[in-house]
Design a protein that fits this description.
The protein has 191 residues and is an alpha/beta fold. It has six helices and seven strands, in the order βαβββαββαβααα. A seven-stranded mixed beta sheet has the order 2-3-4-1-5-7-6, with helices on both faces. α1 packs across α5. The protein is globular, with a radius of gyration of 15 Å.
Amino acid sequence: MTWLVVGLGNPGAEYAATRHNVGQMVVDVLASQYRLKWSTHKSRTDVAAFKIGVGVDAESVIIAKSKSYMNESGGPIKALAAFFKVEPAHIIVLHDELDIPFAAIRSKLGGGDNGHNGLKSLTSAFSTADYYRIRLGIGRPIGQQDPADFVLKPFSSAEKKGQEEFLTRGSEAVESLITKGLGRTQQDFNN
């Protein structure tokens, strides 16, 4: 069985370190942990593959980052899923979440897009919302800052102190979801 793990974000160096790209940051951590090299796929994505576990119980995992902007990520990810014959029930999407505090992690299956343009694009492309989500908390802006501006800014210096641990925990949540299932992952990570 193959899993597709998608880190949502925007392409380009100017967005790489922004809150909106935290999903891509987590798949970068996975790539680093498993010593993977990214390659370009014809679906307009960067991909890498590895296995979790050993022997007959090993799970094949493809990690991916779309090269299109967040609000257009559905098409490339759907093309990638079709190429590898992965159904939405075996897709895990990592994305930034304004409605939970910085560094909090929540996982779930399905649900609404809560105004997140990446999720909206994926749900539209797949004609279903029934894929797994790992919601990576970035918190809400303080004061009058527009949330659209907030997500396109880098983490604050205080947040950067906990960023590495946060991203590592995000990668551990991916592995847990694949190997232990949703219920156990929610118990262990939905703090």
